[in-house]
Amino acid sequence: MNGRVALAAVALLLALGLPWGVVGAETEYVAGWMTPSYCVTTWDGYLDCTYSYISPGFVIPGQGAAYAGYQTSARITIVLGAVLLLHWTRNGGRWQLPAAALLQVGAVALAGTALRPGAVAALLAAALLLAESGLLRGRALPAWGTDGRMTRPFSSA
Asked: Please, what is the Cα angle at 144 between 140 and 146, to 5 degrees?
């Protein structure tokens, strides 16, 4: 296992423990309430009263709250990516690393749009896996107008 794959494996482990979530609706406010007291007169002329109760409002985690990666739907794709990574280290192959990278991008799509630390770790793992698989190695674009195939937009050359 080389350095990039080892870093990707560490990033996958970190993605399971770091917070994930979506933007907005991180918390939800539940309004408070009051139960008034109730008094009755007893047979001997005394008042018998119940206690009133006041509950202040409170804040609970909303639908988009930040949860650790192992508590979100992203855990399935993160673990599947780690299994593919383990399979690649034992057997080699060409398709495991790009598939594991695609699973990490899918994890970000499943778990939310916020770039919280868990999502950043998963995207870092995807980039490292794509770099190791060789899919990020492309030909450099030619310079503007040097070979005649690519010219500046809206120019006469």
From this structure: 90
